[in-house]
């Protein structure tokens, strides 16, 4: 063990995790994180939300979790902690290594359910390792893509990492590798899977949001639609589709959620979508709350 590396590493981790002011943290992290990352590169860490993660420190987003002790979408995670309750059903579309999946598993409890979809080869292996590490019985994982139809699709991803940018949309990155994977749509999966409808769907599919939503029209237009957290790679088309179904979007800005009419003016990459006429949505959102203007 190199004590001359261990001490500065733990000082950096302590500062990034616990120092209350965030100004300058990212700059300091960028200067030192690669040099101070430990060997071996696969490490187990305890997350304060109540679960463990096995992290590959070769992958930048996982290395960030190691040093900061949290996900870069910490405000979205904080929102989930207010909205999800025991007994809820959470669908994680694009689960990657399982941060949202395990967070939701903790929040919905043993009487709830988390369904996790992850088609990427390396991400799937990492997801399964993390589910095994935490011994959760309320998570059902599927190695599938979600799109607008049942069948097979080509997934483009970097084969050496749990690629958070994996997508069924072709990418210009020459390091990406095409893999065939099974695919389902939301309406068909819900019909075949049975059980309670999802309370909340998190959607992170790197540009394929339109296809996922098109395959879930009956579910989204039904009497008990889910809340949606969507990474908005196609803001205009996604917004048009959801607004036609009666949904309203809210953006994250300075730790608060604000109603947003024009998706092209959003200041956050993720948007929260809800149905203002749905009593359950209104009651839950009062816990955040969503601010007008």
Oligomer: single chain
Assigned CATH architecture of the largest domain: 3-Layer(aba) Sandwich
Largest sheet: 9 strands, mixed
Can you tell me the number of structural domains?
2
Q: Please write the CATH class name of the largest domain.
A: Alpha Beta
* Strand order in the sheet with the most strands: 5-4-3-9-10-13-11-12-14
CATH-level-4 superfamily name of the largest domain: Vaccinia Virus protein VP39
Query: Which residue ranges are poorly predicted, with pLDDT under 50 across at least 5 consecutive positions?
Result: none
| Helix content, binned percent | 25-40%
Outline type: globular
CATH topology of the largest domain: Rossmann fold
What value does the Rg take, in angstroms? 19 Å
Number of strands: 14
Explained architecture:
This protein is α/β, with parallel strands linked by helices. It folds into 2 domains: 3-68, no CATH class; 74-291, Vaccinia Virus protein VP39 (Rossmann fold, 3-Layer(aba) Sandwich). It is 37% helix and 24% strand. The chain contains 11 helices and 14 strands. It has helices spanning 3-18, 25-36, 60-68, 74-83, 99-108, 121-134, 186-193, 209-214, 217-221, 235-244, 279-285, and strands spanning 42-47, 51-56, 89-93, 113-117, 139-142, 145-146, 151-157, 177-184, 200-203, 227-231, 248-253, 256-260, 270-274, 290-291. The strands form 3 sheets. Strands 5-4-3-9-10-13-11-12-14 form a 9-stranded mixed sheet. The chain has a 3-stranded mixed sheet with strand order 6-8-7. Strands 1-2 form a two-stranded antiparallel ribbon. A hairpin with a 3-residue loop joins strand 1 (42-47) and strand 2 (51-56). The longest helix is centred in the first third of the chain and has 16 residues, at 3-18. The radius of gyration is 19 Å and the shape is globular. The mean pLDDT is 92.
């Amino acid at each position: 063990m190199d004590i001359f590396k261990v001490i500065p590493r733990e000082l950096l981790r302590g500062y990034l995790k616990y120092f209350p002011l965030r100004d300058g943290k990212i700059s300091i992290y960028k200067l030192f994180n690669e040099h101070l990352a430990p060997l071996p590169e696969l490490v187990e860490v305890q997350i304060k939300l109540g679960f463990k993660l096995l992290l590959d420190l070769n992958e930048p987003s996982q290395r960030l979790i190691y040093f900061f002790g949290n996900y870069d979408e910490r405000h979205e995670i904080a929102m989930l902690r207010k909205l999800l309750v025991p007994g809820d059903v959470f669908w994680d579309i694009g689960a990657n290594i399982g941060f949202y999946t395990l967070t939701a598993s903790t929040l919905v409890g043993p009487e709830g359910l988390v369904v996790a979809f992850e088609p990427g080869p390396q991400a799937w292996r990492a997801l399964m390792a993390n589910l095994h590490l935490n011994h959760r019985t309320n998570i059902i994982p599927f190695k599938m893509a979600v799109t607008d139809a049942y069948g097979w699709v080509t997934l483009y991803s970097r084969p050496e990492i749990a690629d958070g940018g994996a997508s069924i949309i072709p990418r210009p990155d020459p390091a990406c590798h095409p893999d065939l994977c099974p695919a389902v749509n939301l309406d068909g999966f819900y019909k075949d899977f049975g059980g309670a409808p999802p309370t909340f769907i998190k959607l992170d599919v790197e540009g394929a949001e339109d296809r996922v939503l098109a395959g879930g029209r009956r579910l989204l237009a039904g009497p008990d639609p889910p809340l949606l957290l969507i990474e908005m790679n196609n803001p205009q088309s996604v917004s048009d589709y959801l607004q036609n179904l009666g949904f309203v979007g809210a953006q994250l800005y300075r730790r608060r959620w604000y109603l947003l009419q024009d998706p092209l003016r959003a200041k956050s990459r993720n948007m929260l979508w809800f149905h203002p006429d749905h009593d359950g949505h209104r009651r839950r959102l009062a816990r955040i709350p969503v601010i007008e203007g």
